[in-house]
Write a structure and sequence with these properties.
Radius of gyration: 19 Å
Shape: globular
Number of strands: 13
Largest sheet: 7 strands, mixed
Order of helices and strands: EEEEEHEHHEEEHHHHHEEHEE
Number of helices: 9
Strand content: 25-35%
Distance between the termini: 12 Å
Oligomer: single chain
Bound molecules: (3R)-3-hydroxy-3-methyl-5-(phosphonooxy)pentanoic acid
Structural class: alpha+beta
Helix content: 25-40%
Amino acid sequence: MKATAKAPANIAFIKYWGKRDEILRLPVNNSVSMNLSDIFTTTTVEFLKNIKKDEIRINNETLSVKEKERIVEHLNRVRAVADIKDYARVVTQNNFPKGTGIASSASGFAALTLAAVSAAGLGLDEKAVSILARQGSGSACRSVPDGFVEWEAGNCSEDSFSFSIFPQTWWNLRDIVVLISKKSKRVSSSEGHSLTESSPFYKTRIQGMSDKIKDLKDALKNKDFGKFGLITETEALNMHAVMMTSTPPIFYWLPKTLELMLLTRKWREEQLPVYFTIDAGSSIHLICEGKSEKRVTKNLKDNGFDNFVINKPSRGTHLVDEHLF
Ligand code: PMV
């Protein structure tokens, strides 16, 4: 059977940075995110009797050995659950080409998981798909449910999964992803996660986490944008402080990243409610309400930041009828 899934990327307001279990990808803390409407991956999978190894194609690009191994490992997880031995043909399309500064292992592994379990004939529920996706890439488990999502850190593999806390229609937010550099990051997030404990600020960050999550969820519930934006921005700075003080330190920001961070704060002083968050890369995510979108994009263009993608909250990973082969 052939199956095709479409999965959104997601942006975390409360970040996942640090693992309790490297192999199972169990996080240290819960995280909270929103799925993105305009950055996504589509993947078709078919298990076939007549092929001698997994055949994997992503955007017609050449994959590194490491990239290929990670996908084969994930297919092995699905084969183990389904108790099948057949190799798979996998074709994937990202709506963003490689080398754009957008990399999404989250959308990639979420789409691969749902397409593969469906192609293998497994009728798994959303929780089970999220648990499997998490083992491919941690943040991928947050791309599975709809809209605004929380990833419960859990104590073991079976209770570390994501669920929707509000549907995509809950709040008309925007995540305007501003591309700063086309170069891929030098330190992968997998590598970065393993360095977190070497930062002297790591423990302090974790201690304040449950209060911060509660406050963010309250702000989300009450649609209190000022409070929501401030927690989101402070949280990103907090995570980057841990990154920069790890041994060895990791610097994801480029000069243009900092320039836009400072501009965002200046725009706020000019009564434009917009906040930033940043993942493990140089791109900036500008968070605002729908009514502020035009002013934010005008400001971006006026300051020479022309390369951006406007996202609304979106549904999670789902099957689609059009196959890629
Ligand atoms: O899922 P990973 O291993 O790519 O880690 C994601 C890490 C951050 O993007 C920096 C934070 C997050 O919660 O998405």
